[in-house]
Design goal:
alpha+beta, four-stranded mixed β-sheet, four-stranded antiparallel β-sheet, globular, binds glutaryl-coenzyme A
């Protein structure tokens, strides 16, 4: 067992840290206030190869691997968690295409996602289908060499700005989840209405509702065969969950750093507040939860790099990191008091952004369900990729 990062991984992490501190951090508060989608930063991250870490050179990537992706994501999320979502929206679709698309589809769609030239997204969730993916209602009806797509997708990250994305539908509802079909959709085509939505946090990650009315896609935009949609979706979620886990880890670290810095500076009752044991309790717990999450998230990424099954380990990592982030922002808020609650300082942004990690990409309860059902032998978490 080796806990050392290679020199190459350290260099990637340092590059991401420098970019995050120099280019993302200075405007993070302003961008959050203005709900700005920083397409310039999204493009720059593409130029730096941040989306290409898990994509082979053949499709414009650098093939550094999942651990590299996790390190990059953690650094970006540490300074601005909402910018982490942008990474997932490029990498998630690119990975699903890499796994399930035809050679022609890969060449058409992966390089622009990796370079940040085409803004991506994935459209799974619907008004009545959140944790229960198979409850979705969007349909794709074959009409000659096209499909007509009808339905509504809700809470779609990048929904208002995406050029294209993974779109999950039913081609045959009678077959339940085996009747689901996935597409890579050009969202600039007619038949899509976009409605921006507001949320508590992650303000620089545009959120939206997408309504499809006779949205026509050529058969050549289908991924795999009819009926492969659920399998593709579960596979994709396992990859994008790892990105969320890395994001939560970065945010937990940011909150811990803010709390420690403040506890060392602030004097009350004649001593630094870091000297009070009740604050030490919070800081110790922040350190422990973050450290545990880091080991678990890195393990899941390492397994992915070894091409070993990792769904269970990804769920364990995502659950632990999301809970570590939620604990850390709450503890930081207690330590900073009014300076945490104030919108003049970043901890309240961390607090708002952290909540999403217990909800997205499988809520904490979904992760616990996956973990417990595997332990009980009811449902195996680690399944074949295709
Ligand atoms: O036996 P079979 O042929 O019918 O296949 C079953 C199973 O083998 C079938 O699916 C297969 N399967 C898988 N295949 C490969 C299940 N899991 C996997 C897998 N991991 N890999 C049906 O299986 P099932 O277990 O009966 O399915 P289920 O009970 O309907 O669902 C399971 C579960 C609850 C875990 C699933 O629906 C789930 O993960 N739900 C959570 C949904 C989610 O994560 N949504 C995220 C929305 S997107 C988002 O949050 C964007 C955030 C962006 C950001 O912040 O970055």
């Amino acid at each position: 067992m080796d806990f050392e990062l290679t020199d190459e991984l350290v260099a990637v992490r340092d590059l991401a840290r420098e970019f995050a501190e120099k280019e993302v951090a200075p405007t993070a508060a302003k961008d959050d206030r203005e709900h700005a989608f920083r397409s310039d930063l999204v493009k720059k991250m593409g130029e730096l190869g941040f989306y290409g870490s898990v994509i082979p050179e053949k499709y414009g990537g650098n093939g550094m691997g999942f651990l590299a992706m996790v390190l990059i994501t953690e650094e970006i999320a540490r300074v601005h968690s909402a910018m982490r979502v942008a990474i997932n929206m490029q990498i998630g679709p690119a990975l699903a295409l890499l796994q399930f698309a035809s050679e022609e589809q890969k060449q058409q769609w992966i390089p622009p996602l990796v370079q940040g030239d085409s803004i991506g997204c994935f459209a799974i969730t619907e008004p009545d289908a959140g944790s229960d993916v198979a409850a979705m209602r969007t349909t794709a009806t074959r009409d000659g060499d096209h499909y007509a797509i009808n339905g509504t997708k809700l809470w779609i990250s990048n929904g208002p700005v995406a050029d294209g994305g993974l779109l999950y539908t039913y081609t045959d509802r009678s077959r339940k989840h085996r009747g689901m079909t996935a597409f890579y959709a050009d969202l600039r085509l007619p038949g899509v209405t976009r409605k921006p939505l507001e949320a508590m946090g992650a303000h620089c990650s545009p959120l939206g509702e997408l309504t499809f009315e006779n949205f026509r896609l050529p058969v050549s935009d289908r991924l795999g065969d009819e009926g492969d949609g659920f399998k593709i979706c579960m596979w994709q979620l396992n990859q994008t969950r790892l990105n969320c886990a890395a994001g939560a880890l970065g945010l937990a670290r940011a909150a811990k750093e803010a709390a420690i810095n403040y506890a060392k500076e602030r004097t009350q009752f004649g001593q630094k507040i870091g000297e009070f044991q009740m604050n030490q309790d919070l800081i110790a717990q922040m350190v422990v939860h973050e450290d545990a999450a880091r080991l678990l998230v890195y393990r899941a990424a390492w397994l992915a790099d070894q091409k070993k099954p990792n769904n269970l380990e990804t769920s364990i990592g995502k659950y632990t990191a999301a809970e570590a982030a939620a604990f850390a922002v709450d503890a930081a808020m207690k330590i900073l008091g009014a300076y945490g609650y104030s919108t003049e300082f970043p901890v309240e942004r961390y607090y708002r952004d952290a909540k999403s990690y217990q909800i997205v990409e499988g809520s904490s309860n979904v992760q616990k369900m996956i973990i417990a059902q595997d332990a009980l032998g009811y449902r195996q978490a680690n399944r074949a990729a295709s």
